[in-house]
Automatic annotation (TrEMBL):
Organism per entry: Priestia megaterium (strain ATCC 14581 / DSM 32 / CCUG 1817 / JCM 2506 / NBRC 15308 / NCIMB 9376 / NCTC 10342 / NRRL B-14308 / VKM B-512 / Ford 19)
Protein's name in the database: Uncharacterized protein
Swiss-Prot/TrEMBL keywords: Plasmid
Superkingdom of source: Bacteria
A Pfam family reported for this protein in Swiss-Prot or TrEMBL: Glyoxalase
Segment forming the signal sequence: none
Keyword Heme carried by entry: no
InterPro entries linked: Fosfomycin_Res_Enzymes, Glyas_Bleomycin-R_OHBP_Dase, Glyas_Fos-R_dOase_dom, VOC_core
């Protein structure tokens, strides 16, 4: 059994949607204006984004995008940095990893 669906409340649905499409290859299958979007990945995972005026996830809450290798982690890190995101270089922790604050008010981990 695997998790197939997750809903995130975000402060800015269009910006979050663009972020997930640009850096993580997710595809928007449907949306309702600026308040709701249905995203899919290549494995059929469904991520819905719902607009909320306040987003207050616990400090340790995050979603993860595993990569095939360190080179892919480095490429995403560099691209985010070049596009103005505040990202630290990847580190060897529980894997080769880094974190980035996504538009919309949540944290993303990129790792291999």
């Amino acid at each position: 059994m695997k998790i197939h669906h997750l809903n995130l409340t975000v402060t800015d649905v269009p910006a979050t949607q663009e972020f997930l499409e640009t850096y993580f290859g997710m595809t928007c299958r449907a949306n309702r204006g600026k308040g709701f979007a249905i995203m899919h990945d290549e494995d059929g995972f469904v991520l819905t984004l719902m607009k909320g005026s306040k987003v207050n996830y616990p400090k340790t809450f995050h979603i993860g995008f595993p990569q095939e290798n360190e080179e892919q982690v480095n490429k995403i890190n560099q691209r985010l940095k070049e596009d103005g995101f505040n990202v630290e270089p990847p580190k060897q922790l529980h894997g080769y990893t880094f974190y980035v604050e996504a538009p919309g008010g949540f944290t993303v981990e990129v790792l291999c």
